[in-house]
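Example record for the data management plan.
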Amino acid sequence: MLDLLIKNGTVVDGTGLKSFVADIGIEKGVITILENAGNIESTEVIDVKGKIVCPGFIDIQDHSDNFWTIFTIPRLDSKVMDGVTTIIGGNCGTSLSPVLGEGSVESMRKWVDIGNININWKRTKEFFFELSKKSLGVNFGTLVGHETLRRGLMGDQIRKITDDEIKMIGRMLSDSLKEGAFGMSTGLVFSHARAATIYEIKFLVGILKNYNSFYASHIRGESEELLPSINETIQIGRNTEVPIEISHLKAVGKKYWSDMQKAIDMINIANEEGVEISFDVYPYNTTGSVLYILLPDWVSQGGRKEMIKRLRDIDLRKKIIQEMKEMNYNYKNIIVSICPRLKEAVGRKIVDIAESQEIGPEEAIIELLISANGHVVVFNKGILNEENIKMSLKSHYSIVSSADAAYNSEYARTGELVHPRCFGTFSRVLGRYVREQCVLKMEDAIAKMTSRPAIKIGLKDRGILKKGFCADIVVFDENKIIDNADFENSYQYSSGIEYVIINGKVVVRKGQHTGELAGKVLKKK
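Corresponding structural encoding:
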């Protein structure tokens, strides 16, 4: 007797191979049949004739932990309704463990109001224990954030890190890897991590090799610094022989769009030379990031308190404004999306805020950051090139990810604007780039969402529909699947996802969430 039988589906198994028609039998959360099931009995039978059946999507670049929604919205509805069954947190240098002190908590401030969170763990195994006591909407695994380690040890001190301190961070990283973390991430674009030398990063990444883990990097720059940053990352991969994932690779700003082809060429050549390096991409031409990265780098060095102090300094302000003007940002396209301390700014363009205050846009940004104590997230619309997105999706070394957190439709009541990628990343690729524009084949697209991230992460029993593998499964209508979220109304679930099964439990049935919370805490074995 099976627990669940999915009959007559068009199976895209996640390997990239051609689809085939088969039944899928599930028992105790595991796939036990992948063929014609005949007359075998099952507690529940779902006939999905004419529908695509594939592995659940794996979001390798998720931020539901950093934005704390893994606790406040445990169903993680927007990801589940987009077909996601597994997320990996701890990205871009910030993780929820290990917590070494106040500095580790401070590293989360750029994402969430840390005054509203409660952390009662220190080690990664303690974090896993606390998380396992809660019901989760999807499977969750984590990386270890480099900035979380670094700031936990050094706080906001502005000085060169010592060799002894690097070794101490290395020991803490090793402890977390032993306790089940899947690897390490860096956010080298952010103020505290910018001071990290390639020597420091190589030393820490080298530790990952002992645990067969991978390194994910939000590289130092995505405009003028894009190509040098990729070169640095390739060098780290070559010297350490550790698998590399470049987070949300993109060329930011029209002036640098042409560098995207060069970046992908560099990655292709590196792989040909034996460096295992891939990158993830989200299918939108609008970024979502913290506002302070528009400041000159030196302004944010030393952390939030030092940044605010410099922004308040009248003499320094003139220098800051002048340097910002030389950066030639198009402030007409920059929109405030999250600003907890100044909610009336949400939804407004920087140029409109400046005009209402009768000041320039650079000064308006400074005043906004001071008023919001540095916690402002913005959209930068049209800063990415659509052709580059297509080029990235076509690349043999790309993986699809959202690079954002999960929410639900009720969260719209907060007044915050979230990026549409939170609700529609995977459906958008399958609807717009596979069905409508034929940028890539269905089988290839699904492989980029399932087996390829699973292999990179080190998930041995997920990402492929195969006997003995965990039953994380999505059923969708290839003629109807599409994203509905946009920048005017981002709290819209995708269409066309008919069933989502996580660990053998039906979480979405006929397009509606069942209320089942079937996710598990995943640990590196």
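Summary line stored alongside the record: DSSP finds 18 helices and 21 strands in the chain.
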